[in-house]
């Protein structure tokens, strides 16, 4: 149990275009999902917290108009990187919480974004 | 949340126990100690957590000192697939449960 999927697993896009990444909890409902970004040889950095049915909460320094997050259902959150630039190239990872009193986060496999 | 200190890297022979230490001397009474690991180019994986008692599950054991200022994650019989970066992360109960990943320990299991 507690499986989280991400799609796509990797994507290459041209500078200026937008890319959508999906995060799904396959066998549980997730009221809260998190989005992280990881640059090469660095640790994961939290970008935003996504709660079902409400606006995402972004970490300081993360542009909410550039990284659009939608958590439309209890099993799906999406991250859209708008007007992507080469510096947005990174490994994007989502995670999900199984419930309000559960603290373990279950992570997706990650999405490798390369902007050319 | 409490700050943590972990060794940058460790090696372990395959089949032997891997003992990964974590110092969290500023941990508060309501902070759990969580351990995650990240295999290269994959999402992190939850391993185990504890408050003050030692814990064991199918993956690992967690030993927390009586003063709670440090803990040790034990992989009893390390395999090559356990090669990963291991993160020790304190999380307080009632928090937003966001994870702050430090540098972690790169464990390399050697054949």
Care to give the gist of this entry?
The complex is a heterodimer of chains A (116) and B (111). Chain A contains no helices and eleven strands. Chain A is mainly beta.
Approximately how much helix is present in the residues of chain B? under 10%
Task: Tally the helices of chain A.
Answer: 0
Percent of residues of chain A in helical segments?
A: under 10%
The end-to-end span of chain A amounts to: 37 Å
What portion of the residues of chain B fall into strands of 2 or more residues?
Answer: over 45%
Rg on CA atoms of chain B, Å? 13 Å
Q: Tell me the radius of gyration of chain A.
A: 13 Å
Q: Total strand count of chain A, please?
A: 11
Output mean pLDDT of chain A: 92
Overall mean pLDDT of chain B stands at: 93
Major beta-sheet overview of chain B: 5 strands, mixed
Which stretches of chain B are poorly predicted, pLDDT < 50 over at least 5 residues?
none
**What spatial order of strands do you see in the largest sheet of chain B?**
1-9-8-3-4
Order of helices and strands of chain B: EEEEEEEEE
List the helices and strands and how they pair.
The complex is a heterodimer of chains A (116) and B (111).
Chain A: E1 4-7, E2 10-13, E3 19-25, E4 32-38, E5 45-51, E6 57-58, E7 67-73, E8 76-81, E9 90-97, E10 105-107, E11 111-115
Parallel strand pairs in A: 2-11
Antiparallel strand pairs in A: 1-3, 3-8, 4-5, 4-9, 5-6, 7-8, 9-10, 9-11
Chain B: E1 9-13, E2 18-23, E3 31-38, E4 45-50, E5 55-56, E6 61-64, E7 70-75, E8 84-92, E9 105-110
Parallel strand pairs in B: 1-9
Antiparallel strand pairs in B: 2-7, 3-4, 3-8, 5-6, 6-7, 8-9
Which features characterize this protein?
heterodimer, A: mainly beta, 7-stranded mixed beta sheet, 4-stranded antiparallel beta sheet, B: mainly beta, 9 strands, globular
Plain-language structure description:
The complex is a heterodimer of chains A (116) and B (111). Chain A has no helices and eleven strands. In chain A, strands 2, 4, 5, 6, 9, 10 and 11 form a seven-stranded mixed beta sheet that branches. A four-stranded antiparallel beta sheet of chain A has the order 1-3-8-7, with no helix packed on it. The mean pLDDT of chain A is 92. Chain A is 0% helix and 52% strand. The termini of chain A are far apart. Chain A is mostly beta strands. By secondary structure, chain B is mainly beta. Helix content of chain B is 0%, strand content 47%. Chain B has no helices and nine strands. In chain B, strand 5 and strand 6 (61-64) form a beta hairpin. The radius of gyration of chain B is 13 Å and the shape is globular. The termini of chain B are far apart. The A-B interface holds A 4, 6, 32, 34, 36, 43-46, 49, 91, 93-95, 97, 103-110, 112 and B 32, 34, 36, 38, 41-46, 49, 87, 91, 93, 96-104.
